[in-house]
Amino acid sequence: MKERILIPGIASKEGWKKYFKIDILRVLGYCQRVLGLYNRVCMDNSNPTIKKMVMGIIGRDTIGHWREIQSLYKKFYGITCIKCEEAIKRIAKGVPFESVVDETTLRIPGRWELVEDLNILMLILNNIVNKTVNPEEIEAESTNISEGVTKRLSSNPLEILRFIKGFYSTSISLLPLYNDYTFFLYISRSIYIGLLSKYFPNLDIDMLNSYSINFERIKLCKDDEYTILIPSRDSVIHYINMYIETIYRIIKKSLKIKISSFFNLVDEELKYISTMIHEVENLEEEFNTSISQRLVNAIHKNSITRKLKHSYIYATAIAVFNADKDRVAIGSTVLKCKDFLDGLSPYILTGLAHLEDIQQKEDKKTFKAKIRIYYSTNQ
After folding, report:
1. C-alpha triplet 251, 315, 360: angle, nearest 5°
2. pLDDT of the residue at 324
3. How many CB atoms lie within 10 A of CB 49?
4. The model's pTM
5. Which of 85, 88, 291, 356 falls between 20 and 30 A from 128, CA-CA?
């Protein structure tokens, strides 16, 4: 796990530049492709060329792929090709396309969940890009993509498979399990100074500010080493986390409607949790295993929400920090502040736990925070 956390390029300004300019823009490009196609079909659904694309007619050959193409439009966009099967059968018998196309209709639903999520994703990506990439580079990329979609799909309807596959593969490649920079931002939802200096010793926090990766410092413990860093209100970290949640949601919905048969998708959120639960066991050896177990037991016992997800539990609990006494209370369990954060560290470093909604109470001496954490049912 050390090699996973000690990301070689994380301290490189050039590495961050490539992350936002190449990795993020690549996903934005595919999102523009798939949404641009949907909008084109909606605006021009009576156009014979558009109908031909959705019908899945490849040149003169109507055999082999039309069912696959129509099924993909139906599952991904909700677009149904009415009377298209009959039209294709007639075309296969020699009837000209022009003679049957007017008998077909493209039915477009008032709303479709995947399309709604794609629009949300587009907003998130645009917010990330606007904060981190030169606007001229964004405009040029967007123009090229728009032209490419129109040209390719009009000449070969099978390109829809490549576009959507490209969307899934690039979107997934940006998730924290596969991208080191996303992983760092994901675990940075709440990380304390000591962890940062230990596992990312060469990282310059001030350098990250140039990419809108901004933090606030909250001193919850007496020891400065345990000062918590949380993303500031305008930090791009918030949008990265929204991106992750949205992609997880899109994949779960895609699996539910069996679109995975086209692209071999798996539940990426579950895969991430499963992978990191095993890494927690390795990290606990570097901290105090008994404290981690005691802490998780306290969270489990005093959780305000608790959900069983496969063989893992997702729980939320309230922690009350007393800076003067240097103690943290979770229900009736009281720990030293240092022990609390050390015990939580394996979960913070794997992205399985974070603190949020940290609020200073009226007495100015105590803070209240929510702990959100995934842990194994075998804990």
Report:
1. 115
2. 87
3. 11
4. 0.91
5. 356
